[in-house]
Design goal:
Distance between the termini: 13 Å
CATH superfamily: Ferritin, core subunit, four-helix bundle
Helix content: 40-55%
Shape: elongated
Strand content: under 5%
Number of helices: 5
Radius of gyration: 18 Å
């Protein structure tokens, strides 16, 4: 499976312009921070990312920085590829544990994509990071190349299960690295909370995927 193992960049490239603090009365996210801010509760798993105009909320409650923007812009396509990989399991995977895990990945990451898209919209930031000329994103933070995805689509049964497990391990490790960077450098409470959830859940899934790979 070494053909599908990619070098991971532990730190995402920062290319975002400086971001000001959101002014009072602007659109802010409906969210619940770990430290009990004046922000209303949000269930990240529900994908409810709509921004609400709040006249009484302090400007600080909706604050964010470049790291938060970069985290969302990079994690959206990363999650989208994970969901694409998970959907390929239907009709191709033969191992019941692989099928179950693929369903869980799709169910968890789909709503998070909507949530992060909502953040960027509320922050008046593009939902996609501008690409630099000549940049190849394959292999960056565990992202698979088009060739990898085509090979995975062509596989069935145990071959698919093994390839899926190895590719998703690499993919998850990339997401974990990005999430840890957000935990360290980010400012927005909701983004940091989601990053923590990604580190916890995907670290556990990496262990499960490795166990599956060892068993197959």
């Amino acid at each position: 499976m070494t053909a599908f193992t990619h070098a991971l960049r532990r730190k995402p490239v920062r290319r975002m312009a400086a971001v000001g603090i959101v002014a009072a009365g602007a659109l802010v996210l409906s969210a619940c921070s770990d430290n009990g801010d004046d922000m209303s509760g949000m269930d990240h798993g529900s994908g409810n990312s709509s921004a609400k105009a709040t006249a009484t909320a302090p400007a600080e409650s909706g604050s964010f920085n470049d790291a938060d923007v970069t985290f969302a812009q990079m994690m959206i396509p990363h999650h989208e590829q994970a969901v694409e990989m998970a959907r390929l399991a239907d009709g191709r995977a033969s191992d019941s544990e692989v099928k179950d895990l693929a369903s869980k990945i799709e169910a968890a990451q789909g709503p998070e994509i909507k949530t992060m898209t909502g953040w960027l919209t509320a922050w008046n930031k593009p939902t996609a990071m501008e690409s630099m000329p000549g940049m190849d994103h394959s292999g960056m933070n565990g992202m698979m190349s088009d060739g990898d995805m085509k090979e995975l689509k062509a596989m069935k049964g145990t071959e698919f299960d093994k390839m899926f497990a190895q590719m998703m391990i690499d993919h998850h490790n990339g997401a974990i690295s990005m999430a840890k960077t957000e935990q360290t450098d980010g400012k927005n409470a909701d983004a940091k909370k989601m990053a923590g959830g990604i580190v916890t859940s995907q670290s556990a899934e990496v262990k499960q995927l490795q166990s599956i790979l060892d068993r197959l």
